[in-house]
């Protein structure tokens, strides 16, 4: 009996020692796994942080580069080097190129005033449209005729022609008048295009280009005003004169 109890005691103690050894090995394995996972997560976090920092740096470089290329003038300056005007490729790299841009803006403004004169010339000399022209006539102040005043008013013209006739002339003017309207449309479109292009050139805030637009308009006004006087044209009746 005593020998059996000793054997039982030794077996139980051996089992306990084996269990404790396996438990300790399991805890060591768990600790090793946790350490490895923590190390891998730390390394991945550090690599992610490095990637984000590199992305931030590249983003800052891109923003700085774009800022340099997109910087615009907000007041009149005398520098013109590599500054685009109206078009991206229209830049001045030297003094000669700047003079070329100056001439382009100057003659564009001069041409714009010429379009105004052309519109007035066509209306008065070719189309014989004196409705929109400002004609200077001698008026007898003593002659007061209410009927004649009523005939000159728009309502008097509406009574004479009738609504149907006026609508027909408005929407179906005929081939001849439609051709005239096409010419008027082309002149008005080109005038608007040149006018807004000159506005963009002046808004570059480069003082050289600003004076080019102003001088071109001034010289064109004087020249075509003299030509209007010689030819007997009232330039104020131009179709696109409202763009002035």
How would you portray this structure in words?
The chain has helices spanning 2-70, 95-126, 146-152, 154-161, 163-171, 175-202, 207-231. By secondary structure, the protein is an all-alpha fold. 15% of the residues are buried.
Individual helix count: 7
What is the β-strand count? 0
Shape: elongated
Query: How much strand?
Result: under 5%
Global structural class = mainly alpha
How far do the termini sit from each other? 128 Å
Please write the string of helix (H) and strand (E) elements: HHHHHHH
Uncertain parts: 1-28, 31-68
Main beta-sheet annotation: none
Query: In angstroms, what is the radius of gyration?
Result: 44 Å
The chain-level mean pLDDT equals: 73
> Helix amount, in percent?
over 70%
Features:
about 240 residues, mainly alpha
Quick recap:
The chain has about 240 residues and is an all-alpha fold. The chain has helices at about 1-70, 95-125, 145-150, 155-160, 165-170, 175-200, 205-230.
Topology overview:
Layout: H1 2-70, H2 95-126, H3 146-152, H4 154-161, H5 163-171, H6 175-202, H7 207-231
Helix pairs in contact: 2-6, 2-7, 6-7
């Amino acid at each position: 009996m005593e020998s059996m109890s000793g054997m039982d005691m030794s077996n139980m103690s051996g089992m306990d020692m084996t269990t404790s050894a396996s438990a300790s090995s399991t805890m060591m394995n768990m600790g090793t796994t946790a350490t490895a996972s923590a190390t891998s997560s730390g390394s991945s976090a550090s690599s992610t942080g490095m990637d984000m920092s590199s992305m931030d740096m590249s983003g800052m470089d891109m923003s700085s580069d774009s800022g340099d290329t997109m910087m615009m003038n907000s007041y009149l300056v005398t520098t013109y080097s590599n500054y685009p005007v109206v078009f991206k490729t229209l830049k001045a790299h030297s003094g000669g190129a700047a003079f070329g841009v100056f001439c382009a803006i100057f003659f564009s403004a001069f041409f714009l005033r010429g379009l105004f004169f052309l519109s007035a010339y066509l209306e008065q000399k070719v189309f014989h449209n004196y409705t929109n022209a400002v004609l200077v006539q001698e008026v007898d102040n003593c002659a007061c005729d209410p009927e004649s005043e009523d005939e000159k008013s728009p309502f008097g013209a509406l009574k004479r022609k009738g609504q149907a006739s006026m609508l027909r002339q408005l929407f179906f003017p005929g081939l001849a008048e439609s051709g005239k309207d096409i010419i008027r449309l082309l002149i008005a479109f080109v005038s608007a295009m040149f006018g807004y292009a000159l506005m963009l050139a002046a808004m570059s805030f480069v003082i050289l280009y600003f004076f080019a637009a102003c001088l071109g308009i001034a010289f064109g006004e004087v020249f075509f005003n003299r030509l209007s006087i010689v030819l007997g044209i009232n330039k104020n009746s131009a179709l696109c004169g409202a763009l002035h």
